[in-house]
């Protein structure tokens, strides 16, 4: 009986180790984000409403449209999902708006840096083309120096729409393949992970 138990335990242990080994390997997402031609864009998580209140300022979160409790939970869930897919650390870049910075911080993938190229132009849609050119240049420059670290950009609906030409929901991710000039050549839309 002891011999049978030892054989069973040995087989169970071998199977458990084999399963663990396969789940630890990097996913396709993490492999692509380690390359020099992919970037992950993300729309901030749920912040009910549209635009910002009149007379808002970037230096005072209380004057802006912000994440609600659900939005904060969504940001944490996206961070966990990315970690499960092998993205354990990233160069986190964010718009200066508090809803973007909070989303990026709650994901807990690395220090968050505010980047002007990710700023919303919702208040002046005539700036769309100019802002998109700044975003493409920023992406091109960052991809040259990022090494194997993932580059994640947390921004706004208008920025992502101008970059890829498709509407995205709060918390959605866009895995973009870009050329040397930061222009998108292909993309995969990843609905907000739960």
Counting DSSP H or I runs of 4 or more residues, the number of helices is 6
Average pLDDT taken over every residue: 90
What structural class is derived from the secondary structure elements?
alpha/beta
**C-alpha Rg, in Å?**
20 Å
Q: For the record, what is the CATH homologous superfamily label?
A: Phosphoglycerate mutase-like
Measured distance between first and last alpha carbons: 46 Å
CATH class: Alpha Beta
Main sheet specs: 6 strands, mixed
Low-confidence stretches: 7-25
Distinctive features:
six-stranded mixed β-sheet; alpha/beta; 17% strand; 6 strands; Rossmann fold; 194 residues; 6 helices
Describe this structure in words.
- The chain has 194 residues and is of the alpha/beta class.
- The protein has one domain (26-190): Phosphoglycerate mutase-like (Rossmann fold, 3-Layer(aba) Sandwich).
- The chain is 42% helix and 17% strand.
- It has 6 helices and 6 strands.
- The chain has helices at residues 2-24, 28-34, 69-84, 98-107, 128-145, 157-164, and strands spanning 38-43, 90-94, 112-114, 150-155, 173-178, 184-190.
- Strands 3-2-4-1-5-6 form a 6-stranded mixed beta sheet, sandwiched between helices.
- The longest helix has 23 residues, at 2-24.
- It is globular and about 40 Å long.
- Mean pLDDT is 90; it is low at 7-25.
């Amino acid at each position: 009986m002891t011999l049978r138990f030892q054989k069973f335990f040995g087989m169970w242990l071998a199977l458990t180790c084999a399963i663990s080994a396969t789940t630890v390997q990097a996913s396709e997402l993490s492999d692509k984000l380690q390359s020099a031609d992919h970037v992950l864009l993300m729309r901030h998580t749920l912040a009910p409403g549209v635009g910002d209140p009149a007379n808002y300022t970037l230096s005072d979160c209380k004057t802006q449209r912000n994440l609600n409790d659900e939005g904060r939970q969504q940001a944490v869930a996206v961070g966990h999902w990315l970690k499960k897919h092998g993205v354990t650390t990233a160069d986190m870049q964010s718009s200066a708006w508090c809803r973007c910075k909070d989303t990026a911080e709650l994901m807990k993938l690395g220090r968050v840096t505010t980047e002007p190229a990710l700023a919303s132009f919702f208040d002046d849609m005539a700036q769309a083309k100019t802002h998109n050119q700044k975003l493409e240049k920023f992406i091109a420059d960052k991809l040259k120096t990022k090494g194997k670290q993932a580059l994640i950009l947390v921004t706004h609906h208008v920025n992502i729409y101008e970059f890829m030409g498709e509407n995205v929901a709060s918390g959605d991710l866009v895995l973009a393949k870009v050329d040397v000039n930061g222009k998108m050549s292909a993309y995969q839309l990843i609905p907000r992970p739960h």
